[in-house]
Amino acid sequence: MRLYFHYYWGCLTIAKELLINDQIKIKEARMLDEEGNQLGIMTLSQARAYAYDHGVDLVLIAPQATPPVCRAMDYGKYRYECDKREKEAKKKQTTVEIKEVQLSCRIDTHDFDTKVNRAIRFLQDGNKVRVCLKFRGREMAHQALGQEIMDRFAEACSEYGSVDKKPTLEGRQAIMFIAPQKQTAAK
After folding, report:
1. Could you give the domains of the chain?
2. Which of 25, 31, 179, 184 is the most buried (most CB within 10 A)?
C-alpha cells in the first residue's frame, strides 16, 4: 500500500492509494461483490476471475484484516466519488486569517479610534486580530502604560470579539489576540 501526503490549508491528510487487480499479492481474501455482500473466502485467482467476469476491478480495501478483504468495484468511479467528496469538504471549510493591528505607547486618541475601527472590521469579517504594542527606547520603563492601552483596546472591541490570549510581553512588544464572537463570525 502506498501512502501519499497532501497539505490542505495547513492540515496534514493521508490519502491511501489502494492496490488493484495485478498489484495485489496475497494468497486468499474475503471477497465482497459490487453491493458489499460477502461472497466468502476465495483464492486470489478466483477473486480476479470473478472481477474480470463482471467487468469491474478487484480492489484490496482492508489489507490488515485476517484474511485480507477485497471488493469487486469500478475503481475509476470510486476514485471520482472520493475526489468529489474531498472537494465538497474543502468548500465547507472556513479559513480564519490573523490580521495585525500595531499600536505604540504614545498613540493619540484619533489614531487609537482608527485602529479600533480597523480591528472591528476584521472581527466582523470573522478573522482573528493580533494586537501588537511596540515599546521604543525608554518606553520599556512604562509597561503599565502599555498594559492600560491594551486593556482599553480590548474593552473598545469587546462588543465584536473577546480576548483570546491575554497581553504578554515578548521582547520589546506586548502581544494580545482577539477572537471574533460567534454571531459576528456567522454574518
Report:
1. 2-92 (3.10.20.80), 98-186 (3.30.110.10)
2. 31
| Number of neighbouring beta carbons within 10 Å of residue 172 | 12
Residue appearing with cell numbers 468495484: 73
Q: Is the pTM of this model over 0.85?
A: no
For residue range 33-64, list pLDDT tens digits in order.
Answer: 888 788 888 888 888 888 888 888 888 888 88
- Residue 30 φ/ψ, nearest 5 degrees: -80, 125
How far is it, in rounded angstroms, from Cα 174 to Cα 134? 7
pLDDT digits (tens, 9 = 90+) for 68-104: 888 888 888 888 888 888 888 888 777 778 888 998 8
Q: Cite the DSSP H helix spans in 32-169.
A: 44-53, 75-92, 109-124, 143-156
Residue 3's DSSP bridge partners are: 16
Question: Phi/psi of residue 185, each to 5°?
Answer: -70, -30
Q: What is the pLDDT of residues 130-140, one digit of tens each?
A: 999 988 888 88
- Are the C-beta atoms of 51 and 57 separated by less than 8 Å? yes
